[in-house]
Amino acid sequence: MREPVKGTSEAGRRRESRARDTRLRVIEAGVRLFIERGYVPTTVQAIADEAGVAPATIYQAFGTKQAILAAALDLTIAGDDTPLALLQRGWVAKAAQEQDAHRQLRLIIEGATQVAARTAPLKAVMRDAAATDPAARELILQDHERRHRTQEGLVDVLIEHRRLRAGTSRSRAVDTFFALVNSHTYDLLVTQRGWTMTHWQDWLIDLIEHDLFGTTI
After folding, report:
1. Of 82, 97, 114, which residue constitutes the final position of a domain?
2. Count: domains in the chain
3. Rounded CA gap, 138 and 95, in Å?
4. pTM, entire model
């Protein structure tokens, strides 16, 4: 997504603010339509109509529909349009400062599962689109890599002051977290099997405590 040139004058700042508001309106319209209609049936014209802008505005700001999907994914991962990486978010900093190991794990799981729940509908759309759209397949692969790097950072928070269970490497710990804490597991257990969010989180905490650290709560 192209970023606007930052204005130094009052008029420039107003233009920048309007451009940001327009981009956010387009992305939010994209999220709604992708989830309601699917990625392939949703056209740039439909997104423009939903957002109340001209298609030319979308092409100028994003270039392609795939770029809108990528921006929509970024927005749902973060939960807002503040330009902060996930590992820079307040809930991660709070967990990093927590001295109690069990409480720290709960804070990490609560934050990560909220991201998984928030992104689940859009990621289901992406998986459907990937069957026919190479751009969607590539975006899924990029998302997997990014999520793995992010969750590597979360595991590093957990192991900064704790030892992993004997025989468990850092790489194995990250892969375990990656396999368990994701939107697909959320879909399986919460959406399809009717687990509550709390039930899912407690299950994850028990598994991770045992598998990574060899302890139970």
Report:
1. 82
2. 2
3. 32
4. 0.88
| Total count of residues recorded for the chain | 217
Which residues 6+ apart lie within 8 Å of 29 measured at CB?
47, 50, 51
Q: At which of 38, 59, 82 does a domain end?
A: 82
**Contact, 55 vs 14, CB < 8 A?**
no
The Cα 114–Cα 89 span in angstroms is: 13
Quick one: tokens of 162? 């704790």
Q: Give the type of residue at 82.
A: T
Residue reference for tokens 């030892």:
163
Q: In the numeric block, which tokens belong to residue 63?
A: 């270039």
Same domain, 106 and 174: yes
Q: φ and ψ at 52, to 5 degrees?
A: 75, 35
The string of pLDDT tens digits covering residues 109-131 is 999 999 999 999 999 999 999 99
- Distance from C-alpha of 63 to C-alpha of 58, rounded to nearest angstrom: 7
